[in-house]
Amino acid sequence: MASRHSALAHAAYHDLLHALKDEAVSELRGTPTRVERNGRVYWYDSFRLGNQVRKHYIGEDSPELAERLARHREMREPARDRRRARARLVRLLRAEGYLGLDPTTGSLMAALAGAGVFRLGGTVVGTHAFRLYEGELNLRYDLTQAAQTDDLDIASFERLSLVLEDVAAPPVQQVLSDFAFAPAPSLEPGRTWRWRQTSGTALVEFLTPAFQHEGLRDLPALGVQAQALHHLNYLIAEPIQAAIPYRSGVLVQIPRPERYAIHKLIVAARRRDEDRLKSHKDRAQAAFLIKALAQDRPDDLLEAYEDARARGPRWRAQMDESLGRMPDSARALQSL
User: Fold this and answer.
1) Position 68 confidence tier, pLDDT thresholds 50, 70, 90
2) 128 contacts: CB under 8 Å, gap ≥ 6
3) Nearest to 155 by CA among 225, 79, 202
4) How far apart are CA 215 and CA 236, in angstroms?
5) CA–CA dist 18, 22 (Å, integer)
6) Where are the domains of the chain?
7) What is the Cα–Cα distance from 330 to 195, expressed in whole angstroms?
8) Rounded to whole angstroms, how far apart are CA atoms 255 and 122?
């Protein structure tokens, strides 16, 4: 059985997540407005600035968001009191042993969230996302699983970035510059999808799904370029929100845990020989999540697994290659 945090800690995490979602709609400047584009419905905060009407993107329509917007004017507690209440929940989580972030990474995440990166569709992927399943699934990580990476990967859909008609403020490039990140050279002069910290080893990468060939794509909402990768569409479809227990909490987006686990099976098989350590890490994360999800969310895991297998023989071959080295995970998936 997977090791769990206490029921108190799990409740505190969801209280923090709920409070952060409320905070996102607590200070609208105008009127919540539904906008339909290409068959999808999005919510905007519409307000007048001089003679112009501005629209500030809130999120894609869902029953939860619609309900929050309907009662946003009832959230009358002063911002300082709301912040202090969230900070108390963060202290409780840290006391219960929840993973934290180092000050540099935590400050960067908070700054990116403040600029609207995650509101505008950015989804944290990679090890930072894996660590955040601790709260979503109420899992207690050991020292190996808790290891933090200096790399931060953020993925977003190119089409979503084009349709939103809203942009990060301040610009993402300015946020990164403030944290001493500089664009890393790429094969396309004047364009980059990787930003390296000049005073350390940290790296921020922007990614987007590749529906045909891989290469660099523009993400207008974020004002950056992103590397297009195959299989990423599967990973970041229908992301969920997560709370980072840092300061008074930071609200971000991460992939659904069942999709993350299955995607890691594929990624592990695609790694080159020189990336064997990364392949091992991919399989270890997948095995950890498959074990937990098979206990708590077997239907979600089965749906994600069947979805991936239905996408063609190459997908099935890559998953089977990884599962050939993971007999326990293979048995867990076969028994769903």
Assistant:
1) confident
2) 105, 148, 149, 152, 153
3) 225
4) 18
5) 6
6) 78-255, 256-336
7) 37
8) 11
- How far apart are alpha carbons 29 and 35 in whole angstroms? 17
H/E/C letters for each residue in the chain?
A: CCCCCCHHHHHHHHHHHHHHHHHHCCCCCCEEEEEEECCEEEEEEEEEECCEEEEEEEEECCHHHHHHHHCHHHCCCCHHHHHHHHHHHHHHHHHCCCCCCCHHHHHHHHHHHHHCCCCCCCEEECHHHHHHHHHHHCCCCCHHHHCCCCEEEEECCHHHHHHCCCCCCCCHHHHHHHCCEEECCCCCCCCCCEEEECCCCCEEEEEEECCCCCCEEEECCCCEEEEEECCHHHHHCCCEEEEECCCCCEEEEECCHHHHHHHHHHHHHHCCHHHHHHHHHHHHHHHHHHHHHHHHCHHHHHHHHHHHHCCCHHHHHHHHHHHCCCHHHHHHHHCC
Residue 27 has pLDDT above 80, yes or no: no
Q: pLDDT, tens digit, for every residue of 225-278? A: 999 998 999 999 999 999 999 999 999 999 999 999 999 999 999 887 768 888
pTM of the complete model: 0.90
What number of residues does the chain have?
336
Q: pLDDT for 282-336, tens place per residue?
A: 999 999 999 999 999 999 999 999 999 999 999 999 999 999 999 999 999 999 9
CB 250 within 8 A of CB 122: no
**Residue labelled with tokens 């995607």:** 263
Beta-bridge partner residues of 151: 203
Whether residue 170 is preceded by a cis peptide bond, meaning omega within 30 degrees of 0, is yes
CA–CA gap between residue 227 and residue 205 (Å, rounded): 8
Closest alpha carbon to 12 in 300, 270, 333, 243:
243
Quick one: tokens of 298? Answer: 């077997």
Which residue type sits at 65? L
Q: Are 196 and 207 in contact (CB under 8 A)?
A: no
Identify which of 160, 122, 159 has the alpha carbon closest to the alpha carbon of residue 42: 160
